[in-house]
Fold this sequence. Notes:
CATH superfamily of the largest domain: HUPs
Distance between the termini: 54 Å
Mean pLDDT: 83
Structural class: alpha/beta
Largest sheet: 5 strands, parallel
Helix content: 40-55%
CATH topology of the largest domain: Rossmann fold
Amino acid sequence: xxxxxxxxxxxxxxxxxxxxxxxxxxxxxxxxxxxxxxxxxxxxxxxxxxxxxxxxxxxxxxxxxxxxxxxxxxxxxxxxxxxxxxxxxxxxxxxxxxxxxxxxxxxxxxxxxxxxxxxxxxxxxxxxxxxxxxxxxxxxxxxxxxxxxxxxxxxxxxxxxxxxxxxxxxxxxxxxxxxxxxxxxxxxxxxxxxxxxxxxxxxxxxxxxxxxxxxxxxxxxxxxxx
Length: 226
């Protein structure tokens, strides 16, 4: 009888755990929870006047919304020049396209510069900061879509461990990303999947290095910040 009682108790515990898991899964896929989840990937710094504005390349930004925000920040006096990650678009230089966009808004060609970067996003972050440092830039406003702002804060923080350059992240609300229903929109879902993977990979690598004792400067967490 005692063994049977223990068996029933064990089954009851398993059923209870399964019910809890089902409830948690239901909460996670609820639209409210999904909206909150997307909000965790947004990071925003208080912007102050800087030496330059830098805009990485986002292929999904087909209407140039992040560049339009860079122009607004330029006119607001938050950057003396605009740097963009250069690329080829239909045989044209992306920097030249942005120059034309800038001219339409009364910004002189000399105010827009391009950087050719190679590698993954982490390598590009390191290369961009090094290139800007060679131009004696010490403070930048980093313009990125809101959904990518947390990942870029992590990437540029890791590329700047000694804080030799002040990097202020300015997230942009873009029309092609449906923040309130990203899970039901194809493009929005695909960029969020990329962000889930990118941020998860960043933390996985950080914890792996931390276990090996390779991140003495980062004892308080990634980038040495809370």
